[in-house]
Amino acid sequence: MSKSAVSRLLAVVIVVVAVVAGVAAYMLYMPAPPPEEIPTEIKIGFVNSLSGPFAVMGVYSQRGVEIGVKWINDRGGISYKGKKIPVRLIYYDDESNTDYTIRLTEKLIVEDKVHVLILRPPPFNVMAMVPIAERHKVVSIGGTGNDAEYQQGFKYMIQTSPHMSASYKTALRMIREVDPEAKTIAFMVSSEDIGGFTRKSVQETAQKYGFEIIFDVTYPTDITDASPMLREIAALKPDIILGACYRPSSWIVMTQTKDLRVYT
């Protein structure tokens, strides 16, 4: 090996040794990381509809969340690194207004500095809140099962509901097994079916099990009178009536179905 080659090799070895020594010295003398700050309470944020058209659903959601928080705190709180940390619920009424939902979600994260957000129906509320939580890297828990919620690639959302579309697959399979003679379906879905995933699932599953959809309509979320739609369904005499909706519209549809005696 030539003298120049030996010199180059020696230079490389010296550089490598210097780098290793530097890293070792840094690891040896680097300041210890500051101890993790354990919060004195875990703050849960909740934007809910306690007034307006969705209050009929929001009131029950509120009760459920408050019962859950009380249950946890009655047992000392949430265990974390050998400590029991109490939970505090911070909530606001969005008055069933999605614009308020957005502003109040931002307030919970930026001003109140909540550790986690609770989500609740309807789907457009969830789809308004989660992008804000994702931007701030705050975990959100809940959801409605609307398939659109699964399609966004959210990283910090914990979905607690199954795919809504899967529910209808199971229902139609069960109906086919129980009643082989059933042939026709009337299907009504609220405009909360973001992306049309539920409708697509019903259409595909109906075809798979040999059903014919003879009525298929999307009705507005704020419907107050479903009787024209239900009378049209009654006139067609379908074997099966399927509805995909959330409260309060689901209560309106079901109540008027009973009142008008729209049975199959």
User: What is the global morphology?
Assistant: elongated
The first-level CATH class of the largest domain is given as Alpha Beta
The CATH superfamily of the largest domain is identified as Response regulator
Question: What is the end-to-end distance?
Answer: 95 Å
Strand order of the largest sheet: 4-1-5-6-7
Low-confidence stretches: 5-29
Rg for CA atoms? 28 Å
> What is the number of domains?
2
Under CATH, the topology of the largest domain can be stated as: Rossmann fold
Q: How many distinct beta strands?
A: 10
CATH architecture of the largest domain: 3-Layer(aba) Sandwich
Q: Please count the helical segments.
A: 8
Task: Round the mean pLDDT to the nearest integer and report it.
Answer: 80
Percent helix? 40-55%
Structural class: alpha/beta
Tell me the series of helices and strands, N- to C-terminal.
HEHEEEHEHEEHEHEHEH
Share in β-strands? 15-25%
For the biggest sheet, the summary is: 5 strands, parallel
Characterize the structure shown.
By secondary structure, this protein is an alpha/beta fold. It folds into 2 domains: 42-159, 3-Layer(aba) Sandwich (Rossmann fold), CATH 3.40.50; 164-259, Rossmann fold, CATH 3.40.50. It is built from 8 helices and 10 strands. It has helices at residues 3-29, 55-74, 98-110, 123-135, 164-178, 197-208, 227-236, 249-259, and strands spanning 42-48, 78-80, 83-85, 87-93, 116-118, 139-142, 157-159, 184-190, 212-219, 240-244. A 5-stranded parallel β-sheet has the order 4-1-5-6-7, sandwiched between helices. Strands 9-8-10 form a 3-stranded parallel β-sheet, sandwiched between helices. Helix 5 runs parallel beside helix 6. Mean pLDDT is 80; it is low at 5-29.
